[in-house]
Structure formats: C-alpha cells, structure tokens
Amino acid sequence: MRGALGGPRVLLRRLREVMAEPVSAQERLDKIVVLIAANMVAEVCSVYVLRVDGTLELYATEGLNRQAVHLTVMRSDEGLVGLVATEASPINLSDAQAHPAFSYRPETGEEIYRSFLGVPILRAGNTLGVLVVQNRARRTYSEEEVEALQTTAMVLAEMIASGELTSLAQPGAEPAVRRPVHVSGAALTDAIALGHVVLHEPRVVITNFIADDVQKELRRLGVAIETLRAELDLMLESGEVAEGGEHRDVLEAYRMFAHDRGWVHKLEEAVLTGLTAEAAVERVQSDTRARMLRQTDPYLRERLHDFDDLAHRLQRQLLGYDHAPARDKLPEHAIIVARSMGPAALLDYDRNRLRGLIIEEGGPNSHVAIVARALGIAAVGEVPNATGLVDPGDGIIVDGVTGDVHVRPTPDMEAAYVERVRLRARRQLQYLSLRDRPSVTKDGQPITLMINAGLPVDLPHIAETGAAGIGLFRTELQFMVAAQFPRTSEQLALYRNVLDAAGGKPVVFRTLDIGGDKVLPYMRNYEEENPALGWRAIRLGLDRPGLLRSQVRAMLRAASGRELRIMFPMVAMVSEFDEAKGLVERELTHLRRHGHRLPERVEVGTMLEVPSLLFQLDELLERTDFLSVGSNDLLQFMFAADRGNARVANRFDPLSVPVLRVFRLIVERANAHGKSVTLCGELASKPIGALALIAVGFRAFSVLPSAVGPVKAMLLDLDAGKVERLVASLMALPLGSASVRDKLTAFAEAEGLTL
C-alpha cells in the first residue's frame, strides 16, 4: 500500500513524532486520525474508544462531523463499529450500508460514505476500541491496508492503556482499559486480601514500536526465531524427555508452532509494516489471543497457552530478558497473578509482603493451593485470562472465600471489602476466646484439634489457636524454599525449633514428600507422564536412602530426651513401611553407638493415602504406631480424579457415602488394634467436613491454623451421638444420591451449628 505520505513505514515514523510532541491528548488524537487518513488516501478516519459502561464513544475523527466527537455513543453491539469490537476482528466492506449491521448516526454525516474498514484496537487480546477508515467510492481495502491499519491500532492501544485519554472522559465514562473488572473463579483459601498486582511472568513491555531499519528488524526476528527453535530442539534431545510421554508431546507441539511458516510469515509481515521485531510479536499474538479467546472449542482455547508461552519466550529472546522476574523485590501487599504455578515458585516470594494469589489454572486441591493456605494468603484459581485482565500495579481484591476477584475496584467496593476484613478480624477474636476451652462436644466426646505446619512462621499458631500440637509438619517446605540442599545441621536446627515451640505438645514430622509438582530447584527433575502416581515421597526416599537417612538422623538428634513421631508419606505396601521403619532403627543404633542422647520415645507411623493400604490395614496396624489419613491424595486416587485438574477435581463429593464408608472402615480397624488415627487432609479444615468425620468415628484432626476456631466453635455445640446416628442411617440407604452434604447442612441448621 502506498498512500499520500509514502506508506505505512512513513506513517509509523510520523506517529512516533506525534506521540513525542508535548500536546494535549485530544490534539494528539486529532493529529493521528489526519495522518492515517492521508496515508491511506481515506476520506474518513475515526477512533472509537470502549468505555467503562460498555459503550463505544467517538473520540476523534477526520472527515466526519467534528461536532460529533464525544457526543456519538453507541452500544458495543451496535452497528458495524460494535460488530468489530464484539468479534475483535477486522471488517472490510465495499458497501457498508448494504450490511445488515449498518447503523446510521445522522450527527456524524457518514451517509455519503460507502466503503468501510474497521479494525479492533487490541491489547493482550482485550478490545479497547475500534479504528475506522471510510471512502465515498465503493472499494475493498487491500490486505496491505488492513495490515497497516491493525499495526496503527496497536500504537493507539498503548496510548489508551497509558491512561492518557482519561482526562477527556466524563465521570463514569472513562476508557474501559482502566475500568473495574469483576471475575469469578474457584475459592482456594479462607482469606481476603486487598493489594496490588504483581505478574508472576510479567508481559514484556514494548517501548519501541517503530523500526528505524526494517531489514535489521527482520534479521533480529530471524535470529531470535532460530535461537528459540534451537532451545526447543535441545530440550527434546535431552535425556529427560527423549523417551517420550505427554511432556514430550507438549514440547513437540511447541516446536511445531515455532516452525510454522504461517506464524513466521505473519511476524515478518508485521515487521514489513514498520514495526520493531518485538512489537511485531506483540501484534500477532494479540490478534491470535483475541481470536482464540472467542473460540468455543476447548482444545483450541487450550492451545492459546502454548502460543502465549511461545510469544513470551520470543519477546524475551529479542530483548535479552531472563525468563523469570526477580521475586525478592515485592511491593507491600503484593497479589501474584499467574497463568499457572507450582508450590515451589510461590514459596520463592517474600512472604512478609505477599498477600494473595490468582491463577488461571489450579483448583482447590492443587498443591499450590495447599501451600497458599499454609501461608495464610487469599487465593483464587481457575480465573480465565487472569493475566490478560491486569497490569502490574493495578489495585485488586482477592476473595478466597467466594472466589471473586475485583480488578481496579471502585472506592465503594474497596470500602465494602475493608469492612468485611474488619468483620472477619472481629470473628477471629471471637474464636480466640475459645482458645483455652477444652475441645469437647456437647455430649462429652473429646476431639483432638492439631494444626498443619511446615515453616517457622507457622509455629506461633500453636499458642495462638490453643491447638493440641502439630499433626502434620511438612518437612519438604524447608527444602523447597532453600537455594541448595539443606545441610543436616540446618534440618536439625529447624526440627529442634519446632519441638521447642510445641512446648511438649506432640509433633508429627512427615518425611520428605517431594516429586510430582513439588520439585526442588537444585535436584534433577525427572519428567513423568503421571507425576502424582510417580517417583515421589517414600518411593524417592527408599531409592535414595542417603537423603532419607540424613533427615531421620536430624529428627532423632533434635528430639533427644523428648518424644518424637515420624510419619512416612505415599506408602503403598506394608513392605515399604517395614523398609522405612528399619531405616529408623538403624539410625537409632548409629546414634546410640556414637554416644548421642536418644529421644525418650520414638513412634513411627504412616500416611494412609494410597487405596492399596485399605486392603492391608490389619497387617499395617500390627506394625505401625499410628495412622494419619491424607484425604487429599486418598480421594484423588479413589476416584481417579487429578485434584489439580479443574475439569474433574470437583466431580466427586468427598461428603459421599463411598468416602464415608472408607473412613469408617479405617477408624474401626484402628480402634480394633488400639492405634490412634488422625485425619490431616483439607477435608477436616471445614466445619462441615469435620462434622461428617466425627459422624464416622474420627476423634483427632490436624487442620489449617485458621480452621481451628471455626471447627472448634462447631463441635462445642455438637451432639456427636445425634450426627453419628444420622450418618449411619444415610450410609445404610441405597446410594441413589451418594452425597450427604445437603442432609448434614440441614442437620447443622436444625442444631444451630455454624458451618
């Protein structure tokens, strides 16, 4: 395309000059539409901006009636302009008035113009407005002209996103880019936070859109693409992925996209319009994201993440950025927003400044959600396009109780949530008043309430909540936050500190539960098709006995003269427990031989989280000192439903008859052998879950520190005998509706229990 001012590259250079001029926002817009119209030999060029109320407002025009600027407002689904905004796709018509969506606005004087080209003004796949050119003569604009207008729209998107146009808007009609946004996801934690956005993998901010030397930019793009391809080839050729599996399929898909000539051609075309290489990647990916977000095919929508990751890598390659931001420099009240995250990545952040987490993936039972709960931060998962809705520094509210997220909240919304936080604080004070009351039901059944912990910051919760001890200390968290493998002396110091903080109350140390999505940055990570069912926990410990022995030795030395409880995770066979217990005996012998003071008493137990143990209970209980039921893994393995997969994680209700039958069986066999049994999964941390567990015979729980108050308040008003009889009658009925949740909720209401 060649226009009056010499084509798109000349236009972009002139736009750069206009963007740098010290003029008002309106003057800048007016100059931009004149430049575009002249360059495209168009008689009309207009800019429509999407407002916070969802309407489109005419912000600038060359060719239409200037008096219509800021007066012409239309619904976002009205007319051809609305159609461009809704579909986020260009519309190119030789006779616009013949189109069924055409809407005539007499104040603009556009009735004399026939041809129409409109393109969406996009940023991160979100529509911010519409850019239009028109001519009297009937003509179809060329592909080059469409491409040039899209490129220009990208520059306008950054102008809108900068907030420069806000000064031109009436109150309540500001540009939508800064509008308050409310989205909902899966509630992950019982907490609420107000803070500011920090992107886990921040978008590359493009500051230079316009190329000085197009051929140089093409060469930069070519080199970056070749480097990206080489990186992917290297990953695929590495020993960790060479043998195949789902992870290899993902990398093969990435490589296919990176070698796709259509994708590369679009990037090159964008550069040829006058963009820098990194701006071209932004342009093409924004268009791709806008299209794929509007797809109904779930497979195509899932591929959006692949394209996002690929474009992100390519931009960082072009600009020489690292693939991860520094995480130790957080603002106060930081809310992390991420597409996906593992628990180790979350633990990298400064916990003194971290207040919340929002992720596009990850359900309530994912490991990152469990760590978020352990840290006591507000978290919401399964939020579509979360990273595309926010900018770094945006004000944001995370409601981990309801799953609501408010981006750039209004003052009224913010005030309402501040009041909610105050009310919750007052309620916590009420729970605090129960701290020293014995944990006994109304009909005299004692219930032991302990807490889950894993970091030194958790230790004060023992005294704060009045908990009976620590029923699950996750030792892997120390390893996950360390830059290198913790020395035995460091482990010894932590375990001694934990026992000191407990003040004689019992502490159950779970040996390392790493593997799956809990990886250590300094250990080789073996890719597996089904990591939850793979080489993790006790399997890794028995295969690497030096690792397990050093940890057990540190525990034994830390507990000198005191009681010690050690628990092994992910045991699937009695023989595995025997082997692990034998290792403890050998370490005791070693310490005795070298004159170390031994613990006063050592109890060795196991997590019951693999269904195979249900058929070895009697043999296991003859050997173990105690059992702890890990309901999170046990339920995911029972139902073959990955707790990190949003599509199936909530498909089965844990308060269902099959689950309660399993729990009752465990309690009955433990009682028959005279062994204690505790449930330390997430289920017990909700009052309704604890109610169901009491009904099938559990009398000991290890819960989140924040759950001690609500669970205790419920059980103090509970007649345990009544709920036992109710659930026993429900479990005797044909399955029909397997869940007993509704019946338990009705029971609680009738009994005046707070759930």
Written description of the protein model:
By secondary structure, this protein is α/β, with parallel strands linked by helices. The chain folds into four domains: 8-168, GAF domain (Beta-Lactamase), CATH 3.30.450; 181-202 and 325-424, Phosphohistidine domain (Glucose Oxidase, domain 1), CATH 3.50.30; 214-319, Enzyme I, Chain A, domain 2, CATH 1.10.274; 443-751, Phosphoenolpyruvate-binding domains (TIM Barrel). The protein is built from 26 helices and 22 strands. An eight-stranded mixed β-sheet has the order 7-14-13-9-10-11-12-8. Strands 21-20-19-18-17-16-15-22 form an eight-stranded parallel β-sheet. A six-stranded antiparallel β-sheet has the order 3-2-1-6-5-4. Strand 15, helix 14 (460-465) and strand 16 form a beta-alpha-beta unit. Helix 5 (214-237) packs across helix 9 and helix 23 (687-695) packs across helix 25.
